[in-house]
């Protein structure tokens, strides 16, 4: 089918991921099977994973509610007795039938999964290492019955550190000198601000003297 081949080439131009499946081998006219053999043998329009030929139940069989076992039996009979099916089966028995296709697909899927395992393990190990690092930053685990006392201890430690920073009691000599200089600057600013206030007189007397005799 030219349309199918064009679509496959569009998405897999080198034929490395495509598996060819002749889904309705029983619809091939007798005498034309030899024309299909080069394709099914992967000699023409070659694909890395080759081709399979199967017989899917036609619509008339589906309408009779045919079960899977009956469908496989009908398919096996086609490849054993029908001229077209027998020619295909004798040419490449391991490539005919749903069971062979299922086995191949399962094997291929296992290979793909195995190929992804090393990268997956590396990714998981990297995430595990980063998670452990983040947990280490949080700190050691605390038992449920110790949670309250541990929280109080953390709050007390934080309170002490904040107080030391405000009062500079826990600082070293250089830091204490810095905070004392800052305090002196604030006191100097307050005094300068008071001196810069305007003088108000009430009946010739300074308001400050009236308020503070």
From TrEMBL:
Dynamin stalk domain spans which residues?
38-169
Q: Which cellular components does GO assign to this protein?
A: cytoplasm; membrane; microtubule
Q: Name one GO molecular function term.
A: GTPase activity
The protein's superkingdom reads Eukaryota
Check the record and name the Pfam families matching this protein.
Dynamin_M
Q: What InterPro entries does the database record attribute to this sequence?
A: Dynamin (IPR022812), Dynamin_stalk (IPR000375), P-loop_NTPase (IPR027417)
**Protein name according to UniProt:** Dynamin stalk domain-containing protein
Q: Which organism is it from?
A: Alexandrium catenella
The organism's lineage is:
Eukaryota, Sar, Alveolata, Dinophyceae, Gonyaulacales
């Amino acid at each position: 089918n030219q349309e199918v081949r064009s679509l496959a080439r569009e998405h897999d131009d080198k034929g490395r991921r495509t598996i060819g499946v002749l889904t309705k081998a029983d619809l091939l006219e007798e005498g034309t099977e030899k024309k299909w053999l080069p394709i099914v043998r992967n000699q023409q329009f070659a694909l890395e994973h080759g081709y399979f030929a199967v017989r899917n139940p036609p619509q008339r069989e589906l309408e009779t509610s045919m079960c899977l076992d009956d469908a496989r039996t009908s398919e096996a009979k086609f490849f054993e007795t029908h001229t077209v099916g027998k020619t295909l089966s004798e040419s490449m028995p391991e490539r005919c039938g749903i069971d062979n296709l299922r086995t191949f697909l399962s094997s291929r899927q296992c290979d793909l999964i195995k190929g992804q395992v090393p990268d997956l393990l590396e990714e998981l190990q990297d995430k595990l290492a980063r998670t452990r690092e983040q947990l280490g930053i949080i700190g050691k685990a605390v038992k449920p019955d110790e949670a309250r006392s541990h929280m109080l201890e953390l709050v007390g430690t934080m309170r002490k550190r904040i107080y030391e920073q405000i009062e500079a009691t826990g600082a070293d000599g250089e830091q204490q000198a810095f905070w004392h200089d800052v305090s002196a600057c604030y006191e100097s600013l307050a005094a300068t601000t008071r001196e810069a206030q305007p003088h108000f007189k009430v009946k010739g007397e300074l308001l400050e003297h009236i308020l503070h005799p």
